[in-house]
Amino acid sequence: MNWINSVVRPKIRSILRKKEMPDNLWVKCPETGQMIYYKDLEANQFVVPGSNYHWRMTASARLKFLFDNAEYETLPLPEVPLDPLKFRDERRYTDRLKDARSKTGLADAVLAGAGRLDGQRIVAAVQDFDFLGGSLGTAAGEAVITAMRTAVKRETPFILFAASGGARMQEGILSLMQMPRTTVAVQELRESRLPYVVVLTHPTTGGVTASYAMLGDIQIAEPGALIGFAGPRVIEQTIREQLPNGFQRAEYLYDHGMVDMVVHRHALRGTLARICHILTHRLPGCEVAVSEPIDGKVALRAPPSTITLGGNGLDTAMLDDDEGLTGGAGNGANPNPPHGT
Question: How much is the pTM?
């Protein structure tokens, strides 16, 4: 009788029990509180249909949406010591790495791939914020450098999607040294006369902003992205003054000349393709800016000037400002989304 109660009945109950609903079947928009079916959000490139809030994307999803037919070659990355400083705070650093790898399926915070964008060969790297906040450690630095040198070797444009909370404290000075090392790799791209395009996503802060993320020939930002070195709260506490509304957001930086474009995610792939074609002389005279509104809102803003690329001898590209490509903060995302998103 005990055998029936302890073995048979639990097995019968487990068979008859209804399957639990997945945790991420429905998600809530941080801006409006709107509930969105996850599959619909994914099909819309992780842009909330109602508010146009730009949700974070995983590194693999970024590359799939970027490359033709979602096909790309994952670049092999060099191995680095897992825990060079034997660091431990509340938990061991190695345990944090294991959890991050299990959560994201990545070896570290950067995923690099090579493929074709509108028929043109390119190399791209993506920082995944879900992996320890996209922090820049030895492995992430090596991944960025390897991807850039692969672009030099293959003579292709290089596109970087930046998203990071800064340097990885668990690796100390070794993490900080990735800033000058990646800067040297950017210089190698310039000496090879190859385009380097940076897409700044939410959030891009700390040592990443202070190094390779702000060294692109063309700087593009997604709507509503937080971009800066120190966070707004840190700055307010330091200078003891109230910051302007939307401070350090993509639209604010565009208005003050820190980025070249603010591009809606739906228009991003086409914009990147046009930029790469122009900078490699494949389509001379082609306009970078697109003027088609998305969901009734401006898809792209571009300054009415000629951009001279960062000392690498490439041709300049005219960016039109016609047909109202000067939309304000309402061009695709909340200009001041919550800090926790």
Answer: 0.78
